[in-house]
Amino acid sequence: MTASTVDVLLPLGLDTPYSYLVPDGLALVPGDLVTVPLGSRLMVGCVWPRRGDAQAKEVDTSKLKAVKKRLDHRALPPDLIKLIDWMADYTLAPRGMVLRMALRHEENPSPARERVGVRATGHTPERLTAARRRLLDVMSDGFVRAKTDAAREAGVSPSVVDGMVDEGALETLVLPPPPAAETPDPDHATPTLSEPQAEAAAAMVEAVKARAFSVHLLDGVTGSGKTEVYFEAVAESIRAGRQALILLPEIALTQAFLDRFTRRFGVTPAEWHSGVSTRRRGRILRGVAEGEVQVVAGARSALFLPFRDLALTIVDEEHDPAYKQEDGVAYHARDMAVVRARFSSSPIVLASATPSIETEVNARRGRYGRLALPLRFGGAKVPGLAPIDLRKEGPPRGRWIAPRLQAEIGQTLEDGGQALLFLNRRGYAPLTLCRSCGVRVKCPSCSAWLVEHRFRRRLTCHHCGYNAPVPENCPACGEKDSMVPCGPGVERLQEEVQVLFPEARSLVLSSDMTGGMERMRAELDAVAKGEVDVIVGTQLVAKGHNFPGLALVGVVDADVGLGQGDPRAAERTFQLVHQVAGRAGRGATEGRGFIQTHMPEHPVMQALVKGDRTAFYETEINAREEAHLPPYGRLASLVISANEGPAAEGHARRLAASAPRAEGVRVLGPAEAPLAVLRGRHRWRLLVRAPRGFDLSGYLRAWREVAPRPTGNTKVSIDVDPMSFM
Ligand SMILES: Nc1ncnc2c1ncn2[C@@H]1O[C@H](COP(=O)(O)OP(=O)(O)OP(=O)(O)O)[C@@H](O)[C@H]1O
Ligand SMILES: [Zn+2]
Q1: Does the annotation flag 486 for ligand binding?
Q2: Which one of 624, 653, 682 terminates a domain?
Q3: pLDDT at position 252, please?
Q4: Which residue has the CA at smallest separation from atom 4 of ligand 1?
Q5: Residue 277 falls inside a structural domain
Q6: Where does Zn(2+) 2 bind (predicted)?
Q7: Which of 470, 487, 504 is the last residue of a domain?
C-alpha cells in the first residue's frame, strides 16, 4: 500500500512539516498552498520539499489526515522556499514562523468582488423611451462598460440598464479585475545623467542583463542622485518584462519616493507596507505572483512576496537600522535580501551615502562591486560641519542652543533660508524629577524613566507605551508643584526656538506625533515647499529627504548614543549626523552644519568635522578588527526573560554553564540587561562571540540540544548578528 503523501509546513511555531495524504486526482508540488486539517480546524499551509532522509522514513499512512484542497491562485516560488529554509537555519527561528511572514496575507484572502460589464447585442427593442435611447446611443460603439459606467455616461438609472439586459438589447459579461498596478513606462521621462551617474547606471543595467547574482554598493554622497541612477536599472528590468523590488527603510518617506517614481515612470509602483489596506495587499500579492506587478516599493516585509520573475532588488539607505527586525523572527532585511537575490540568481544594489561597516568591508574586499558617485548632482557642495565645544561655549543653564548656533540660525533666517535642528530625543523632556526629594518618575513595568510629552500632556514609556498624566504633586514625598522636567526633547527644543525666534514658523518632526502618516506626509511636504522656517526633528529627519531650501543644520547633542557600551554607537552616530547634515545645501544656497559636542576630539567628531569619510571608516574598521567585532568576528545575543528576576537569572546561569566548548568561541555573561525590566519581564543577557567564518547558527543549535529547557514563563530569545545591545 503506497498511499501518496506530502509534507506541509504550517505557519506556526513548528520547525518541521507534517505529513498529509494526497487525495486521488490532486497533483501537488512544493510551494503549492493547501488547506489541511489541524486538530479540529482547517489551516493554510505550504507543500514543502522533502529533505533527503525524510523519504526513507516509514510513515503509518493509516493515521494521516488528507489535504483538503489546493488554493489555486498561487504558490510560493522556489527561491522563496529556499529563503525561508535558509532564514530558519540561520536565525534559529522555527521554520513555520518564517513561513508565516510569507503567508500572513493569505489567512483571509478576501475574494475579489466580481465586476459585471455590459455590451450592445445589436438587437433594438420596438418601444424605446428617451432614457433607453440615450443608453443605446452610448453603447452603440460596441465597447464593454461596467454597468455603473454605462448608466453614468448615459445619464440614466442602473435600472434602465437592467431593463435593456432583460429586453436582450444588452448582454452581460464578467469583467476582468482591474490590474493591481499599472505598467510603468521605462521611457516616460528619462533623465540626462552626469558622467559618473551614467557610468554607475550602465554597470547596474549590465548586472540586470546578466541575469546572475551580483551585489553592488551604490556609494554616493548625499544628494548625488542615487535614486535617479538606480531607476535606470529598474527601467531595464521593466523593459525585459521582469520584476524589481525596491526596499525602503521608512514608510513615512514613501510618498516623496512614489512621487519621484511617478515622474520617472508615469505610474506609481505597487506600495507594500503595513499602512496599505488588506484588500489592496491581497491584489498586489496576486499581481506579484502572476508577474503582472512589475515594481514593488516597500518595507522589509516585501522581501517575502512571491515574485514570479525577480530581476533586481534595490535596498535604499542600506545602513538604516530599521531594516533589522527585532521581535519575532530576528532578521536583517538587507542581509536576507542579498540571500534571496542569490537564490533567484539576480543582482542586488545596496545604496547609501554612509554604508554600514559590514557593507563597506565587503566592498573593500571586492566581494561587492562599488559604484561611486563622489559629487552632488548639479555641483552643489556637501555642507561642512563646524564643531561647537559645549564645554567652552555652551548655552546658559536650562537652554540647549549655544550662542554661536543661535547667531547662525538668526543669520540663516534673515537670508531667507530654512534651518533644521536635530536631536534624537522624542517628547518634551527625557526625565521628570521631584525638586524636593529627588525622586524620578519611572515606568511601572520597565527599567526606564518616563518621558514627558507635552502635546499629549502625558508621561510615556518609550519601551512599552505605558502612559500617565504628569503628576502635579510628587508621587513619593507629596510635595506640591515640585515636579520638574530635566533635559531636552524635541518638543522642548521647539519651545526654545519660539523664544529665541518668535517670528519664525517652527515645526517638530518626530515619528510619534499625533495625526499619523497623513499628517507627517503633509508636514514633510510643507517643509519641502518652504512653508516652515525652523524644523526640529528626531532621526526621522536623517532619512533621505530632499528639502531644497534647507541652508543650515544644527546637531544639538552629537554625544547622545555614544559611549553606552554599544559596539555600533560610533557607526550609528556618524551615519546619523552625516545624513542629517546631508539634508542641507541641496538647492541653490550653500549649506552649513554645526555640531554641539562635549568631546570634539572624539574620532567620530573629528571625521565629521573634517568631512573625512575615509578617516571614519579607517578608524572604525581597525577598531572592529582589533576587537574581533563584526564583520571581523561574529556575535549572537541571548536574552533570557521571566516574570521573576531570580528565575531569569537562574536560567541564564544554567544556560551559560551548558555552553559547548568550541575553538575561539566565548560566552560572555550572564549579566543583567541594560534594560533590566521590560514590560514587566526581567531580562538577563548572554553574548556569544565567535571567529569570523564560524558557523554560529550551527553552534547555537547544538547548544540548544544540550541546554536545560526553560520552565514556567521563562523564555530565551536568540538574535544572530544583533544590532541592539539593550
Ligand atoms: N540626472 C539628474 N537629472 C536631474 N535631476 C537629478 C539628476 N540626478 C539627481 N537629480 C536630482 O538631485 C536631487 C538629489 O538626488 P537624490 O535624492 O537621488 O540623491 P541621493 O543620492 O539619494 O541623496 P541622499 O543620499 O541624500 O538621499 C534630487 O532632487 C534629484 O531629482
Ligand atoms: Zn514601560
Answers
A1: no
A2: 624
A3: 63
A4: 191
A5: yes
A6: 443, 446, 461, 464
A7: 487
Going by C-alpha positions, the residue among 120, 78, 83, 113 that lies closest to residue 101 is 83
Question: Residue 405: how many CB atoms within 10 A of its CB?
Answer: 24
The one-letter amino acid code at 336 reads M
Residue 235 inside a domain? The answer is yes
* Residue 80: domain span: 5-106
Question: Using an 8 Å Cβ cutoff, are 56 and 11 in contact?
Answer: no
CB distance 582 to ligand 1 below 6 Å: yes
* Domains of the chain: total: 6
Could you give the angle at the alpha carbon of 40 between the alpha carbons of 36 and 43, nearest 5°?
A: 30
**CB-based contacts of 72, cutoff 8 Å, min separation 6:** none
Other Cβ atoms less than 10 A from the Cβ of 103: the count is 20
Q: Is 544 in the pocket of ligand 1 (CB under 6 A)?
A: yes
433 & 503 share domain: no
Judged by DSSP in three states, 262 sits in helix
**Is the domain of 268 the same as that of 344?**
yes
Q: Are residues 417 and 514 in the same domain?
A: yes
CA distances from 303 to 67, 81, 121, 281, 310 (A): 28, 12, 48, 14, 11
Alpha-carbon distance 43 to 102, whole Å?
A: 15
Same domain, 450 and 580: no
Give 712's DSSP letter. T
**Residues 362, 508 within the same domain:** no
Ligand 2 is an ion; its neighbours by CB within 5 Å are: 443, 445-446, 461, 463-464, 466
pLDDT tens by residue, 188-229: 999 999 999 999 999 999 999 999 999 999 999 988 999 999
Does the CB atom of residue 620 touch ligand 1 within 6 A? no
The interface predicted TM-score (ipTM) is: 0.96
Q: Where do the H-state alpha helices sit in 46-110?
A: 78-91, 95-103
313 neighbors 349 (Cβ within 8 angstroms): yes
Segment holding 41, helix H or strand E: strand 41-48
Do residues 396 and 494 both lie within one domain? yes
Q: What is the 517 CA–ligand 2 centroid distance (Å)?
A: 24
Say yes or no: 673 and 592 in one domain.
no
Q: What is the pLDDT of residues 114-156, one digit of tens each?
A: 778 899 998 888 888 899 999 999 998 888 898 888 999 999 9
How crowded is the C-beta side of 140, counted as CA atoms within 13 Å?
9
Q: Is residue 251 part of a domain?
A: yes
Residue of the nearest CA to atom 7 in ligand 1? 225
Which of helix, strand or coil describes residue 433?
strand
- What is the 3-class SS of 444-469, one letter each residue? CCCCCECEEECCCCEEECCCCCCEEE
CA distance 326 to 719: 8
| pLDDT at site 76 | 94
The CB of 406 under 6 Å from ligand 1? The reply is no
Residue 546 in contact with ligand 1 by CB distance below 6 A: yes
DSSP state letter for 423? -
Nearest one of 413, 409, 432, 435 to 421, comparing CA atoms? 409
At 268-318, the pLDDT tens digits run 999 998 888 888 888 899 899 999 999 999 999 999 999 999 999 999 999
252-285 as b/e, with b when 16 or more CB fall inside 10 Å? bbbbbbeeebeebbeebbbbbbeebeeeebbbbb
Q: Annotation-wise, does 464 bind a ligand?
A: yes
Grid cell listed for 17:
512539516
**What size, in residues, is the chain?**
726
In a domain, 189, yes or no: no
